[in-house]
Specification:
Helix content is 52%, strand content 16%. By secondary structure, the protein is α+β, with helices and mostly antiparallel strands. The longest helix is centred in the middle third of the chain and has 27 residues.
Length: 113
């Protein structure tokens, strides 16, 4: 079982990668995303695939929160999560540019995309 923990202080998102698919919230209100690490078709691209998936997951979490803020009519929170969405998706794109097309297609076919 692969387990990686980390915290992105700039975006205020915390995450943990394990071999389970779920989103949960800790007692302190920190979002935790758990998901399968996708196996790269070529082992030398595994690190980049993991980083791309990590940023895509952070983007998905921020996007869900942005949608919730929009539904509640909270413009301040919407703007906050919109900025987070933009920065996390830019980071995702930075890593996917380094990947060959077959690795990128594998990520895009996953349920995370």
């Amino acid at each position: 079982m692969l387990k990686v923990t980390g915290k992105n202080l700039k975006n205020g998102l915390a995450y943990r990668l394990t071999d389970e698919d779920s989103i949960s919230e800790t007692p302190k209100g920190v979002l935790i995303k758990q998901f399968n690490i996708m196996k790269a078709l070529n082992k030398k691209h595994q690190s980049t695939v993991n980083k791309a998936i990590s940023w895509l997951t952070k983007h998905n979490l921020a996007n869900n929160q942005r949608d919730e803020a929009e539904g509640n009519g909270d413009e301040k929170m919407y703007n906050k999560y919109n900025k987070i969405c933009e920065s996390t998706f830019d980071k995702y794109l930075d890593y996917t540019i380094e990947l060959p097309s077959r690795e990128l297609k594998q990520i895009e076919k996953s349920e995370l995309y």
